[in-house]
Request: fold
Amino acid sequence: MTEFGYTLLCEQTPPKQLVADLVDAEQAGFGFSVISDHYFPWIEEQGHSPYAWSVLGAAAQATERIPLMTFVTCPIMRYHPAVVAQKAATMGVLSDGRFTLGVGAGENLNEHVVGRGWPSVRVRHEMLGEALEIITALFSGEYVDYEGDYFTVDSAKLYDLPENPVPVAVAASGQESVEIAAELGDGLIATEPRAELVSSFEEAGGEGPKYGQVPVCYDQDADAARERAGRLWRWGVAGWKVMAELPGPVNFAAHSRFVRPEDVVAGVPCGPDVEPYVEAVRAFTDAGFTHVALCQIGAEHQKEFVTWAERQLLPALREL
Reply:
């Protein structure tokens, strides 16, 4: 049965509200949660970007049952993979085994801040492969030494580990990243409902959950929802090949300057009617995804979205 999740979007929401919103989402019956791991918002209008791992620690203590997941952490530039392994293991302990580490090859937007430049896609994938080898080795609890082309680990060991190793899901958008996910991950992450990603993952020997995500903009006023989506989600129409390369909110603002609201709304269910949301999720379930997270646009509209989802949307989705 498909699980339906709630997205904590750090780029639009202050940290205390993220925790409070997750408490509401757990009480409403969402089956899991994901959190973005950014240094910057996509555009200045979003206005926030707290440190996701601090929020996760607070969220683990404020909630009781809802699974937690990064969506996604880049373990190749801003964070060394040995540090990511320690953070993830600690989250596994704090959450009593409710945490999944979602990783990907990252975006220039967040990773350029450490001043190491921005590698090509091929190099980023090679770095991600090494990072996953290091993280997996450290989850064993043994001392780890590693000498790769991109990373070195000198006698590292994790002392606080959950009872079971933290699962690692890997974001993929093409064959190369799908193969990394299948070989080194415990699940697949994608933001598009492409059945070929799921089939390629499974054909390459990949096992485990398949995670997708749907941006939505609930509002009782459909026109207000469409306006908000067009204003706050206009950065998202370019696709990951562009989104991974632009270095800052000002660049996303320039890129999206001529994006029309109808271009955004074409891919974002808006308003109070349940059926467009169900159809957007159905595209993922039909493609073989087992977990679909919903991402409500607009920090000030989270409570009303969660209330509506509990009463109308989640019951409709469970009939899929």
Residues 216 and 296 are 5 Å apart (CA to CA). The radius of gyration is 19 Å. The mean pLDDT is 97. The beta strands are 3-8, 32-35, 68-69, 99-103, 144-147, 152-156, 168-171, 187-189, 210-216, 291-296.
